[in-house]
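Input sequence (219 aa), recorded before submission:
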Amino acid sequence: MKISKIKGIYREGKKIFTENPKPCKGIKVYNEKLVKYKNKELRSWNPYRSKFAAAILKGLSVKLLPNSNVLYLGASTGTTVSHISDILKEGTIYAIENSPFSLKALLSICSKRSNIIPFLGDANHPDRYSSITPQVDFIYQDISQRNQAEIFFKNIERYLKVKGSGILMIKARSIDISLKPKKAYEQVCNELEKNGLKINELIELSPYEKDHAALSISN
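Predicted structure, token format:
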């Protein structure tokens, strides 16, 4: 076991882990494996359940610090949110989800994690959660919509600090099912570059996730 390039993530071969916080000791979020390491309880981060874990295992560089404030778009039931929560010892996640069903599961995770602020909202309308969301250091988006690049940029424009960074999980089939995935990725990159964003890395997520790629940007 060793600490990875990203502080707060531990790695052993092709497996990565985050540290379960004290209020959550012994508690699993999605039936992940819990292991003991140097008086810490670590949670296995499954790359088949979390595209962020898949991207990290495939070498994505991430500027995520323990004191980062994160806007998470498409929080779903909280699998990936919970691992980011483990990493952010001093930061906060503003978790936006538009499904009441998914939000209910997310709320149960938040009951023991004070650094997650959940919100039922549509990421197409960033103004609707301005009352709870400050300027952030990092934006993470995982949304299955045709206009996912537009949604990402609108939120970056409103909430991302200068010299901030972000990750967009591109879902090629949601953009245009007739396009080959690489063409869909290229289309998204071009759209974001035209809006002044810097593309840092693009990493395809196979074999963990088909027709998906992780795109890292900075402003």
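Checked by second reader. The chain has a mean pLDDT of 95.
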